[in-house]
Amino acid sequence: MQALDSVSLNILAPLFNRTGRLNGHPFDPATPLHLPQGKWKIIHFGMMIPDLPDPIRFFDIIAILGTASRVPAFAAPSLLTTDPDDAAWLLVGSGTSRDNFHCYSAEQDCDFADDVSRLRWGDQLTITRTDERITVHANPKGLRAELTVRPTREVSHFAHLPGLYDHWSILCEYTGTFMTDDGTVVESSGLTTWEYARGRSDVPLPIYVFTYQILNISPRVQVLLVELLGPGGVAIQRTVYVRDLDGESRFYTKGFTHSVSRYLPHTTPDGVEMALPAELSWSVLDDHGHELITIRGKANDDYAYGMAGGFAGSYEYTGRYKRRPIEGTAYIEWIDRRKQR
User: Fold this and answer.
1) Which residues lie closer than 8 Å to 26 by C-beta, 6 or more apart?
2) Which tens digit of pLDDT belongs to each residue from 308-330?
């Protein structure tokens, strides 16, 4: 299987996922974003912050318009409360807001500007944006958050399947205030992400395992890990992205390793048994075959359901980056839908 993984990753995957010519180039802020339209029935907006103080630890916005019913990792059809094309799925997650995943009606409960300058999901979340600034007002059960976010031009392209699926993540700086229901107030600033994806709902993508992990390893450097597995555990994508405020974005696949040594049993709201990482490790080499980053992590068991098919949470990590010791609190998304087949 390892040999097949290497073939699929190094030879087959780039033939379909054409991100190579996109990564490493600055993001054009004039790039248009749009709501569901034409063949693009599924739209994703996201924002993720790791390394927040206890008890919050992480903050995320995972919003999906439409229903990815033909992508096993992201499908939870039994949780639909409206028409699939009308569904507006939302998680505003943190260590103190773990039980607020909701399927809204886009028509009845939400207000989305056609140019994506203003997005509102019920009374839980409002996002307003220009090319220079994004503001977030979030009010889920367990947390209130007010954020001002400045996008940079550093972008990581995770997927570019022409005519089928696009997904990118922009490095951003933020300042914000978080307040828990018990009155704890956290003022914070640092690095975050602004994410956008679009896809079709009529084309199957056989993704069964998905993880996305974010580490702010310094005030200026952010590291992302993406792993996707298809049928039989065959690798679809295994990549580590590094970007910084100095204007450099790189991605690495050589010597990628990722393993979980201990699991936490969970069951999703739609009844799927899913083991989530309790202890994990991962690493990747640089372009010269030398260690770039090695991470060992222990989960905080603050997983919040709301990745449509899975969970988001945090873990404490130690490790090395370019031979220097690092430590902190990472953000993790995890889906394993192999048992629902």
Assistant:
1) 153, 154, 155, 247
2) 789 999 999 999 999 999 999 99
